[in-house]
Amino acid sequence: MRRILPLFCLAMLSAALLAGCAAGQKYPTDNAYHPETDAQYTWYAKGERRMFAEAENGYYVLLHLNQLFYMDAAAMEPIPVCSKPNCDHTDKSCDSFFRGSVCSVFYNNGKLYVLENTPTSLDRFALEEVAADGSTRRTLFEFSMPVDYQKALVHRGKFYVASTQMDEKMNARTGIWQFDLARPSSAPKLLCEMEPSYEHLSQLAAEYITARGHYLYITAPCQAARLDLNAPKKGLEMLFVQEDRPEDPADPYYRREGQLLFPCFPGDRIAYASAGVRTIDGTDYWFNLLKLWDAEPLREAASLSEKLAVGAMAADDKYIYRLDQGSPAPPDTDDPYFGNALKIYDAEGNLLENIPLTDVGKIMRMLFVSPGEHVFFGDAQEGLWYICKSEIGSGNVQVHRLTDFGYLE
């Protein structure tokens, strides 16, 4: 049953937002993670829209593509973010709904933001600052061109997006744009221009961005780079270019690496999941291989087992998570939970937990790791579940149902 967020809680949340950053606030410039001011990068290690954000005492989550809910971390019950006492929360008159057909949510330095994307004849691409109770909204930026949810984030007082936008002279320019949240009327800065070519990182090729410390990480097909936000004029630093391995007829486990996936940051390392195909007896099996780099100085450190199956992968500063998607098991796999499990590794790739999900969802494609206590996963139509990180290592990790409706319904 849907409920109204208690007015007292809304008032407390609104007060917290009003206590947010001032225009003259100084932000960190080091390469550490600061929870109050930095992008919540653990959510972004999977190529989904950014539908979760963690606040001081709970979470904001966008369900049904564009309806905003709040969950207290103790109760873990999604409640529409609406200040209207008699609202049934079922149509666009409710405070919890946004105009965008596909939206993303960010919580940064005590403030709540929603990115609205409306790819229709009534195009609207805007970043809204939202009151904690949903009662008021302020448009900070309206963008001249579409903004992809995988290429946008809030970090250390700025909104970053990899896209094509109009500059002050109304010229379309492609690259990494920076918008100042404290001065929304000021012109955005083009930090790094990109050529629209697959031979270089570009608006066409740049598929994903995330941030950790003073670096912005950019992923493109088969290549990855980072941009030093303290010295953006230095341009992109290429991390690596991934190429298919030449076919070896003598190798029955010939591996073709293809799409490069998304970065995450276990411990002090950088990890990239790489999607590929392994051919066994003429049958193709998709898989993921997680490659690890030491960040400072940048050097390749290790790769996890090539027998990692295809699945959503993410990490926080302590653990690596893999959610099998129900894909067929290769004949050399003797894992009884293959395709029906959440697997948790330490930062070195050692398996800590193998949590069966036999009775949970049909195809578990969605994985969202909070910076704090919870890991969420789900099926787009059947709903969401979660576990508590404090139970990892106990051998008795409990799986809890979060919603009884799919978040795309």
Give a short summary of the structure:
This protein has 409 residues and is an all-beta fold. The protein has a domain at 1-21 and 30-203.
Characterization of the model:
With 409 residues, this protein is mainly β. It has a domain at 1-21 and 30-203. It has one helix and 28 strands. The protein has a four-stranded antiparallel sheet with strand order 1-2-3-4, with no helix packed on it. The protein is globular. The model is unreliable at 1-8, 15-21 and 197-204 (pLDDT under 50).
Tell me the strand percentage band: 35-45%
Elements, N to C (H/E) = HEEEEEEEEEEEEEEEEEEEEEEEEEEEE
Unreliable segments of 5+ consecutive residues: 1-8, 15-21, 197-204
Estimated radius of gyration = 21 Å
Helical segment tally?
1
Helix content: under 10%
Mean pLDDT: 77
Query: How widely separated are the two ends?
Result: 15 Å
Give the strand order, joined by hyphens, for the main sheet.
1-2-3-4
- The shape is globular
Please provide the count of β strands: 28
Major sheet, described briefly?
A: 4 strands, antiparallel
Structural class determined from secondary elements: mainly beta
Provide key terms for this protein.
single chain; disordered N terminus; four-stranded antiparallel β-sheet; 409 residues
